[in-house]
Design goal:
Blueprint: E1 13-17, H1 22-33, E2 37-42, H2 45-57, E3 62-66, H3 72-86, E4 91-94, H4 112-139, E5 143-148, H5 162-182, E6 187-194, H6 200-206, H7 210-218, H8 228-239, E7 250-253
Parallel strand pairs: 1-2, 1-4, 2-3, 4-5, 5-6, 6-7
Helix pairs in contact: 1-8, 3-4, 4-5
Length: about 260
């Protein structure tokens, strides 16, 4: 087998939560281009259908599943829908996440409901996804789980953005612990830590315009922000046999050390 063959996902079945745009879209299309059939889940149905059409245009099967992964019964429903439709699940990408309000606060000024909503989406939901999907993966001999975290989770601290980064830091440790617990079942668990990316959610949270993001890019060592395909490439690596001896890893895709 040649080195490039290790990156093939031909015959694999994947799920990407938060797959309707931004990083999730880039990951879903990357997996499809590598040969996987890809289901996408999220709260915006039309965006999911649009990404599904792009997946089909790449010759792959797809399934668009509108849902909210903050609810356990919904997560169970995702797994069941995929098993009913595809018969197996090989790859699960927990990408759904973000800030649950447009304004940011110091930790001690954060309303409890905002804390709960943000930590549920960024930390509890990926745990629920892993809990729901691992029996299906175990039954077919293994799989790959990829959590999408943030470089902010490994910073020295994040004043005004502490709830988000704290929840992602928890996700990093969750990733490492799940990797150890699931290794006996040949299920690998890794995380992608994106750096600065111009997404719709980031625009809404920051209020940034073209000038704002241009200045941000100028401050990056590589003089650009992340692109969707940067994360698609990382996900293909972590989902494929190219990373068969990689688990519990936090892979920075950030354009800087």
């Amino acid at each position: 087998m040649g080195i490039l063959d290790l990156f093939s996902l031909e015959g694999k079945i994947a799920m990407v939560t938060g797959g309707g745009g931004g990083i999730g879209r880039g990951i879903a299309l990357g997996l499809a281009e590598a040969g996987a059939d890809v289901a996408v889940a999220g709260r915006r149905e039309q965006l999911l259908k649009d990404v599904g059409k792009e997946i089909e245009d790449r010759g792959r099967r797809t399934l668009a599943l509108p849902t909210d992964v903050r609810d356990w019964s919904n997560v169970e429903g995702l797994v069941q829908s995929m098993m009913d439709h595809f018969g197996r699940i090989d790859i699960w990408v927990s990408n759904a996440g973000g800030l649950q309000e447009q304004s940011v606060n110091f930790l001690v000024k954060t309303p409890e409901e905002s804390w709960d909503a943000t930590t549920t989406l960024n930390f509890k939901a990926p745990w629920m996804c892993a809990k729901a999907v691992w029996p299906a993966m175990r039954s077919t001999g293994g799989g790959a789980i990829i959590n999408v975290s943030s470089v902010g989770a490994i910073s020295r601290g994040a004043p005004t953005n502490g709830v988000y980064t704290a929840s992602k830091a928890g996700l990093n440790h969750l990733t490492k612990t799940l990797a150890l617990e699931m290794a006996p079942f040949n299920i690998r668990v890794n995380a992608i830590l994106p750096g600065s990316v111009r997404t719709e959610d980031y625009e809404d949270a920051s209020g940034g315009d073209d000038e704002y993001f241009a200045k941000m890019a100028e401050n990056e060592p590589l003089k650009r922000l992340g692109k969707e395909e940067d994360f698609g490439a990382a996900a293909v690596y972590l989902a494929s046999d190219a990373s068969s001896w990689v688990t519990g890893t936090l892979l920075m895709v950030a354009g800087h050390p």
